[in-house]
Design brief:
CATH topology: Rossmann fold
Largest sheet: 5 strands, parallel
Structural class: alpha/beta
Bound molecules: adenosine monophosphate
Number of helices: 4
Number of domains: 1
Order of helices and strands: EEHHEHEEEEHEE
CATH class: Alpha Beta
Strand order of the largest sheet: 4-3-7-8-9
Length: 170
């Protein structure tokens, strides 16, 4: 099944010059969604996974589905001041300025085997910050996975030696 037909390109969203990858046509189609989940799971076959992280907010959809299938815990990583309990944070650079992401301090125990999931790998700054959060708490990164990778932005170069998987490549 050619999954890319379920990704809608929206030019100049949310601002001029950005080609936004809209995943809602994929989310709305149960067959395409199932195929995508199967592809992501097959990249993890045989791996022990304790926790799956979903990155706010579009990483939550498949992050939770993966956690369910892997019988693993689910951890939301969120934008600042959204999580109610004690948090750790990591910042990353934006085109202008910087932003940060937060995770609850008790989300990961030392040695936990963790999969990180987000919808799009673009410049890699977001995923790199999430890797730093996992490492701050002593987790082991099994894989960083995405629905799609925008290869022309070279985001994987920011992610060091961590295994990276994307169900679709552009
Ligand atoms: P980056 O930190 O540059 O790798 O950007 C990744 C984050 O920004 C992900 O959480 C994506 O949801 C979002 N993102 C970046 N570029 C796009 C795009 N072209 N279409 C949709 N989401 C994007």
């Amino acid at each position: 099944m050619p999954l890319k037909q379920y990704i809608r390109d929206i030019q100049d969203f949310p601002k001029p010059g950005i080609g936004f990858k809209d995943i809602t046509p994929l989310l709305i189609n149960p067959v395409a969604r199932k195929v995508t989940l199967t592809i992501l799971l097959s990249s993890l076959r045989g791996q022990k996974v304790d926790k799956v992280i979903g990155v706010e907010s579009r990483g939550f959809f498949f992050g939770m589905l993966l956690a369910e299938e892997l019988n693993a815990g689910f951890i939301p990583v969120r934008k600042p001041n959204k999580l109610p309990y004690q948090t750790i944070s990591a910042s990353y650079d934006l085109e202008y300025g910087s932003d940060s992401l937060e995770m609850h301090i008790d989300a990961i125990q030392k040695g936990d085997r963790v999969v990180i999931h987000d919808d799009v790998l673009a410049t890699g700054g977001t995923a790199k910050a999430v890797c730093e959060l996992v490492e701050q708490l002593g987790g082991e990164i099994v894989q960083v996975n995405f629905l799609m990778e925008l290869s022309f932005l070279n985001g994987r170069e920011k992610l060091g030696n961590h295994p990276i998987f994307a169900a679709m490549k552009y």
